[in-house]
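Example record

The entry below shows one chain as it appears in the dataset: sequence first, then structure tokens.
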Amino acid sequence: MEYGSQKATLRLLSCLVLYCVVGTAAEELRFKVRHERALRDHPGVVTFDQSGIAYQQVLNEKQQAKVAKGKKPPELESARWAYEDIQQLWISPDKLVILTYKDRKWLLGVDREFEFYRTGEEAAAPFTAAYELLKERLDQRLVAALADDAAVLGDRGLWQIPVKLQGTLRGSEGVLIVGIDRLVYQTDRNGQSRTWRLEDIDNVSTSDPFQLTLVTYERAKSQYGGRKNFQFQLKQRLDAKHFEALWKRLNRDKGLEFLTAIER
């Protein structure tokens, strides 16, 4: 009996070790990317893990051919950013932009950013997987330029309304979905979809039943305070009760007191 108990314990420990290894591996995501540069783009690999994001440049085909002929390989670029050192992380299914706190002296102190696009076989594995890894780990500095599947499928949807998002040169059409803990704008136009947690939204307002404005913490240098406004034209009349409930939920944690005497 004692021997059997020891075997069972060893099996249990083996399962725990296997679970830890698989779980740890699952928390690291790697993507082949193209790093956009001013003169020439570079191929590379971006890695997401629990503590941050890393980038490693790799040799392109011409460089590989030269190295194969015995030439000295060029110096490859590499970088790593802890999540706390990222000023804003913009992520869509195909594109990743990391805005850092580092100044670019030749651009009068403009903060340095890194722009990556998925390439090769990774086109079948969008950055959406990285969003799933990060959405509960990062704060309002995470800009999700994609539609959260859970809300889109209605798992957390309370109500939705067809809309047009106004743009400077060109807008987009889609659906605004209001969920329990987040809002989602879903559109077919690349890079225009958004998912906002309630804490990602600074304010919500409306001037008439066919207009809705969200003020978010996404960086927008051209707008007051650096916050970005999303102005929606509504294709259906906005239910006043829906807007009131949304406004109260957004402001519930800001210490505001609501006047309820009018409703009596």
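Notes for this example: The chain has two domains: 29-134, 147-255. The chain has a mean pLDDT of 82.
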